[in-house]
Amino acid sequence: MTHMAPVILEQPPLLAVRPPETVSMRTRDGLRLDADLYRPDAVGPWPVLLLRLACGRRTAMTTQYAHPRWYAARGYVVVVQDVRGRGTSEGRFRPFEAEREDGADAVAWAASLPGSNGTVGMYGSGYAGMAQLLALAERPAALRAVVPALAGWDVFTDWATEGGAFRLADAMGWALHCAAESARRLEDGAAYRALLEATRALPLDDEIPSRPRVLREYARHCHYDDWLTTPGPGGSWDGLSPRHALSGGVGEVSILQIGGWYDPRLTGTLEAHEALSGALSGGSDSAVRLLVGPWDRHGVAAHARTEGPAPSDVPSFDALQLGWFGRFLKGEMNGAERGGPIRLFDVLERRWRDLPALPPAARSLHLASDGLATRHGGGALRDGAPDEAFLDVLVHDPRNPVPAVGGHAVPGAGPRDRAAIDARPDVAVYDTAPLAAPLTLSGLAALEIWVEADAPSFDVSAVLSAVLPDGRVLPLSQGHARVEPGGEQRPLPVALRALCATLPAGSALRLSIAGSCFPAYPVNPGTGAEPGETRLVDAQPITLLVHGGGTRPSRLLLPARD
User: How far apart are CA 237 and CA 497, in angstroms?
Assistant: First the structure.
């Protein structure tokens, strides 16, 4: 069991739970927010757990968490609330706009409910995780502990874009769900049916792939057009983001962040941990911890099937936060906060690793090639830069873009074998020699690549993988960069995600380079046009030139050795 899970020497008897009640509060601007209330049927008072949802309170996020009755039976008052404009709560839903003020109001109200002892903890993943972080900015006195999961830190860079490219599949899928809920609330049956159907099969082959007809026709029901067209970072995006809201500190609160290696928002989660660790102004009984496990954006744990020992125990979100809330809301000495500030799950060795901080990307492996890296075996990764310059040429064809497979890219996230993708002629592949001994990579990674194209705009998709002795190619880290007209940097920096993996002896490390990763990001038409203005017919083939060696050394930067 990971050190952040509870240590329970004697399991207390479960409590009876009263039937749920529907309760309401008023925000500071007068809107009614509705919630379901679950209380132990016993003498209290009890700490309160608050879950604020944009997906409808009646679901109680049970796809990722135990039902609220489970927590109530263990001595908590549980409040599951529809955020503004969702479920039966009043108002209009505009993502993240009101969660700072509404969240603080909800904490104060929840602390005053019957059976409450006046202390509140918050939980939830994704949007509900961001709602916790935004509520922290108001420093509500009753809020003592939060457990945001798979949340991120900045709406522009963690939810809307990555590396300058729009997060097409992720943003479109969520927007369709939001629009369908808005149509349902308005009893717009035709819109609801069309939007719900689109959630089940994203309309990516529309005339305008990044702005399909169903979202153009029902744009009034969601935020998608704003996210697609509003430039950033900064500006109006700052008003939505915990990164900006929490720049003044967080007060006296204990924070356990849960991240996932296959969650699109992991980079923001890591940045949040660094910022919150420095911003904590609480006393000795406050703590900031980070746990990153093999979870995807839905909180599902995915394991790569490898030889060796059985998988280490991966605790549920419920076990993790039950220990955290027991420690910081009830004062139980269960050791939930013990260990280092960061704990990472090694996705290949399948064990947990404790770190005081994430090691930087400091060790270099240089790209080398005979000019045929798009043919299997032509490219290599070496410790030293090759003296001789090389040039690899790959052609991106928009009619057959390189698909997103594995890693954090949506859809298809997880430890999926990408060997067939790397065999395509539009993917350049660079391998190390087979490892003579196991190699542990735990920390940050980056890529500096000398690349140019015959188009004003182009994309670079980079995937770092383990090539296992059985031939499977499992993604470990990934990065994407969109180069706009006039925006070329030499070399081009591509931010790769952090990783934690121990490659076994006989395996190899692989870097794959392509001109697309669809539908995780829109196909770049090569013209510099915005995605929302690009028709399917507008996209043109793009030739990428990858340089290395000599005066233009392209290199991969890996975590410094422990």
Answer: 22
* Per-residue CA distances from 420 to 311, 402, 403, 405, 546 (Å): 26, 11, 11, 10, 22
For residue 195, the surrounding DSSP H or E stretch is: helix 189-200
Contact yes or no for 221/182 (Cβ under 8 A): yes
Q: Say what the pLDDT of residue 412 is.
A: 85
Q: How far is CA 44 from CA 12, 49, 50, 76, in A?
A: 15, 14, 17, 9
Alpha helices in 309-463 (DSSP H): 317-329, 419-422
Is 516 in contact with 387 (CB distance < 8 Å)? no
d(CA 371, CA 269): 38
End-to-end C-alpha distance for the chain, whole angstroms: 24
CB 61 within 8 A of CB 83: no
> Which two three-digit tokens encode residue 374?
């798009």
**Per-residue pLDDT at 1:** 46
The predicted pLDDT at position 489 comes to 76
Whole-angstrom CA distances from 277 to 86, 265, 480 are 33, 19, 28
Tell me the C-alpha distance between 303 and 31, whole Å: 45
C-alpha dihedral (322, 272, 64, 405), degrees to nearest 10: -140
Secondary-structure percent of the chain, ordered helix, strand, coil, rounded to 5: 25, 30, 45
**Alpha-helix runs per DSSP H in 345-466:** 419-422
The C-alpha R_g of the chain, in whole angstroms, comes to: 24
Rounded to whole angstroms, the Cα distance separating 548 from 511 reads 14
146-204 per-position pLDDT tens digit: 999 999 999 999 999 999 999 999 999 999 999 999 999 999 999 999 999 999 999 99
Which two tokens mark 280? 């904590």
Q: Read off the DSSP letter of residue 356.
A: S
Instruction: State phi, psi for 407 to the nearest 5 degrees.
Output: 65, -140
By percentage, how much of the chain surpasses pLDDT 70?
A: 95
φ/ψ (deg, to 5) at 177:
-65, -45
Task: Give the DSSP H/E element, type plus range, for residue 549.
Answer: none
Nearest residue to 104 (alpha-carbon basis) of 166, 50, 176, 185: 50
Locate 383 and state its tokens.
Answer: 């410790």
Predicted confidence (pLDDT) at residue 503 exceeds the cutoff of 50? yes
Closest CA to 499 of 470, 481, 475, 517: 475
Return the closest-CA partner of residue 546 out of 491, 508, 494. 491
> What number is the average pLDDT over the span 130-158?
97
Q: Can you tell me which residue has the tokens 């009753």?
A: 142
Instruction: Name beta bridge partners: 173.
Output: none
Q: Are strands 254-262 and 143-149 parallel, antiparallel or unpaired?
A: parallel
DSSP state, residue 202: -
3-state DSSP of 302-324: CCCCCCCCCCCCCCCHHHHHHHH
DSSP 157: I
If you ran DSSP here, which 8-state letter would residue 523 be given?
A: P
Give CA–CA dist 304/143, Å, rounded. 38
Let me know how long the chain is: 562
Would you say residue 308 has pLDDT above 90?
A: no
pTM for the model: 0.94
Whether the Cβ atoms of residue 86 and residue 53 lie closer than 8 Å to each other: yes
Q: Is the pLDDT of residue 307 over 60?
A: no
